[in-house]
Amino acid sequence: MMVKRFHPGSEEAQDLLSIGKHFIRCYLEARSGLKQLGILRSDRLLQGDYAEWVVAQLMGLELASSTVEKAIDARDSEGRTYQIKSRVVENLHQSTSFDIRDIAERFDFLMLVFLSPSLEVLAILKVPHEVVKDLGSQTASTFRFRWNRSVASDPRVERIIWPDDEVA
Ligand SMILES: [Ca+2]
Q: Each residue of 145-168: pLDDT tens digit?
């Protein structure tokens, strides 16, 4: 399948993001109907795919072809690699965490995508691998990068999309 990509920030890319948003709305309505009927019981699939697509469009990345759980989700034109993770939250003050199976699996940047329950993009952040390593911690089974107030204000965490009026 041919996937459309345009130069980030161009009118075509903006149009594509609007079209994506429109289809997401249609999809969510259809899903809500399917849920009421008891046919669907999960919200997980669309969220991850949509987060990856939005990041790729905004930053001009090429998505990896495999859709199974993987260390690298996308690459930029200079070959730098990206792991993209998303969470649905009520607001950006909600604490949550991102699990990375193995921190030794090399990616250059971790992209954090925060979506509202209706899948509006609330924020997108770019975290270099060494910062993930520095701020996160190893648990028994996984490497955990916690999202909290101090991480949100760390100057090494780059804000690609962040609300203008920062809530206190
Ligand atoms: Ca991912």
A: 999 999 999 999 999 999 986 554
Rounded to the nearest angstrom, the distance between the alpha carbon of 65 and the centre of ligand 1 is 12
State the distance from the centre of ligand 1 to the C-alpha of 81, rounded, in angstroms: 12
CA of 37 to the centre of ligand 1 (A): 30
Cα separation, 110 vs 95, whole angstroms: 17
pTM for the predicted model, two decimal places: 0.82
Domains of the chain, first to last: 43-161 (3.40.1350)
**pLDDT tens-digit map of 28-48:** 899 888 888 877 766 667 888
CA 110 to centroid of ligand 1, rounded, Å:
9
C-alpha 22 – ligand 1 centre gap (Å):
23
> How deeply is 83 buried, as exposed, middle or buried, from its count of CB atoms within 10 A (0-12, 13-18, 19+)?
buried
Do the strands 121-128 and 81-88 form a parallel or antiparallel pair, or are they unpaired?
unpaired
Q: In angstroms, rounded to a whole number, what is the distance separating the alpha carbons of residues 82 and 166? A: 27
Helix 11-36 with 44-59: angle, nearest 10 deg = 180
- Which tokens belong to 70? 């993987």
What secondary structure does DSSP assign to 121-143, as a single string?
Answer: EEEEEEEEHHHHHHH-EE-SSSE
